[in-house]
Amino acid sequence: MMKLKNIIYSTIFLLVSQTLWAQYKEYEPLQAEGNMPKDFTTLSSDKYETQKEKISKHDSHFDKKAKDDFYLKSNFQLHDLLYSGRVLYNDKVSTYIQKVANVLLKSDPTLQSKLRFYTLKSANVNAFATDQGMLFFNLGLIAQVENEAQLAMVISHEMTHYTNKHAVNRYVEKEKISRRKGMYRTVSWEDRIKKMSSYSKENEMEADLEGFKRYKKTNYSYEDARKVFDVLKYSYLPFDDLEFKKSFLETKNLILPESYVLKKVREIGSLAEENEDEDEEENHTHPSISKRIEYINKKVKKQDNTGRVSYIVGEEEFKKIQYIARHELNSIYLNNLQYEKALYNAYLLLQNDPNDIHSQKTVMKALYGISKYKNADLFEEIHGDYTEKEGSSQRVYFLTDTMGANELNIVALNYAWRLRKKLPEDKEVSLISDDLMKDLVFNHYKTLDDFEETPFEEKSIINDTINQKEEFDSLAYAKLSKYEKIKYKKKFKQISQDPDDNEYYYEYAFVNMMDDEFTETFEKFLKEHTEKENEDNLSSSELVAKRKREAKKKKRVERKGHAFGIDKIIVVDPSYTKVDERKKKGSKKFESSESAQLKLDEMIKDNAQRLDLDIVVMDDNTFKSSETKKYNDFITLNNWLSERAVHLGFEISMVNINQNQLNSIQDSYGTKYVSWLGYAGVRRKKTDAIYYVCASLIYPIFLPLSIAYAVTPEHDTFLYFVLFDIEKGEYVWVYTRQLKDRDYSSLVKGTLYDLLYQVKTKQK
Amino acid sequence: MTIKNLLLFFCVFTAISWTNAQSGYLGKRLIGRYNFYGNFALNNPTYNQPVGLRIDDYSDDGYAYDYEDGEAPSTGWNSFHGFELEYITSRKGSWTFLYGYSRTSIDHQQRVINTTSNNSSYDDDDVYFLHNPYDLNFKLHSHEYGIKYTSYLTNRAGIAPLGLYLSYGFSVLANSVVYRKLVNEKYKKDKIHNFTSTAFTFEIGKQKVFFDKIIVNIGISTRYTFGTDVITGIVNSDYSVDSDYDGDYYYYNASADEEQYTETARLERNAKRRLFMKQLFNLKFGVGYLIK
Question: CB pairs below 8 Å between A and B: how many?
């Protein structure tokens, strides 16, 4: 009997815990899977050599040269893209795209074997094909297309770019135009510009036409082939257009003033119309969407859509992939410091699933980012001008623009603290809410007495901006797709109610929130702030002594170097760039940069061995096909470092917004130290040589020396090393140098040893 | 401190410091180096060549040298050699112990006393100076022992021992003047005078490492040898030839503060002047080995 009871209890516990787990299960970020494709593991120089061999012998000398130049540049630039930390392979999205592509390529196995499909972590609604057969699809596109058929039309369009070699042909044509070759010899500058854009447009139209021909061979709906151009037309907007209600950020006691709600949002399409008037369409590289719609409409009209479908691979799978893409946008926007976009994107996702933890955390992180930049008086660096936005998301930009730094700090803390109570184990939430509290103390409030403990009189927090009297069916509206909403909304005028504003509304933000944990955290930062103030308010003699100490320390560091005493570090994406500024056509020396980078890799490992420093090098030239896990870590770290570098540039100290991912990297590599390291060797013409030559004409004995000086180039070596602590999210050491010397091997080795020595050596 | 002791000191010192990873080029901090110093002798003799282009100057002063066939004013290289042990003490600097050896001829006009009158006393007219720049009988040999601090410039490699550097140091020179005469087709050498000098050394140069082991250095080396001054050194005139002589002392500039000196002092003065000029400005080329 007892046993049965136990079993029942255990079952109930298991069920409850599973339900809770399901409720709080966070969205898993999209990652590359399987083996690394050859595109990633082959050196760019090898890819270039292979493509070079394919240049036809019958081409003219100019064409051969232009093609050679194109293959050189494109292969190296593509390599940079592949390792930009934004490209995924064999992931759920790429695999899905491949499936849709297979439908299109059913009757063309040769082409099927030549193409590779990759996902690009970019919010832009775009896709592109390379001459090497790589097709990239932005997550922004996946998030916006309405169904599988629309995606198929885009894939088919990109396939044509590949099959018709548009990339290389466009390059050759561009070269001919810019160098006035052949038929362009006597053409004016203006006409050449027009010719250049019209050539690109011809390519696009060709891709639409041939893409549609391929599309027609499948059973996908003709209607969707037409509709995909609507997606492109409104691609600058978020994936949906739902009214942003301020109640989303409010609580019972924190009620934002009505004046913070933009009364009337800009009509969708109005900006585009204005811009179209201003721009000269003929100079654009792409034909206008309206023209493409018109063109495709003609083609579609002739077709019978009966029996044609929007899904062949499957609707459920498409929805799943779109869900992933839309969630990925949260992270993309946050990484790009587009906090307002992240906030609205997460808001849209939360309308469908209010328990979506990933989106809730995105809201918190977005508010955190906005608050940090507002507190630092650098808001304009991350803010999108609300007057240049249209649609419902405009209200987000207006709200953040209107709110003061203290208000934003309070609203962000309010949101983060509530999430903290919901997710007490989540390190990211704890770190961010702590930092928001710290900012509140350091920048705005020195006592909790400034905040009310009893609620403000009840007020209506519901403020629908859609006027019910005009019979706007909000329920029906919510079910519409983005494009239908745009059309529907145009029929109605939005009228907002006059608010009964409370100027000091934020003083009620923490009513019923100020528990022990809250007050203790506040007191902790208050103490920290007082100590810092004491440190800053030194007497003049103390100040002099402090400065002396600091100067002495600086001198010692210069002489002896740092001594961080670190035993293991990860070097992410070490880079070596060779530049010859004397070259007219592109100064980067691709091939020698690549071989220098390979040598640098060896040097890093050699020096680490000498110093007994455990080192993991994540170099984009040396990944092996089995190293997908390492590649995913590379992406996470590289993106994180890029984001950190921007904050560092603005001198803003922010905690990690993706701490959980970083923690797992820390655990798997056994170190919390990650670095960025790079060299650049620059060769340039001496600008002052002419003066020396002229001077030596007066004293001819120096002429040989002056000529020798004039003809030899000037060299500079640049190096940077940034060491981060991923646990704290802070940089430990930033080291940048410009050396007025050639980047000869012993210089690189010597400086590299010096850097790693300082990392390894312990303070005595 | 002998060279042997210096080496011993380095070995002990460096052995103590090698317990941990260290600064220096790939952890190597001790460099042994050979240096070649040279300057173009326009106005001075070398060890085997007479006074450079200045020989003609003597044609007007009554002691002119009559060139014989095949003899003509010429220039040459004054060179000397050195060995260094450099120890890198920090990222920016190093200490160096150096030893150098140099030799050159001294442009010294030999005093001749006419004693044909068999008188024990003689006057000014009995004394004359024999000047034959092709004789090269007076030689100066110098052994230099020094220490210098090298600072590696930060806008270049900035990491010792790479890139552009500046050195400052102090040297002691043990000098001997040797009188060399051809006797029975063989040179007979007499060490006739020893003296010591001190010098301030300054060097600017650039250093590069090859194959992680070989270190090559080019630069400009200057040594300011005390005991003479720039004007005396550069003008290089032996005042004694115009001075009064009483058998023991020369009197120079009698009308002002009278200065007197012996024949030995005159020789030392000329030797110092020669030493000053030889050390003042030299091009340096060094090849070293990164020992440990």
Answer: 69
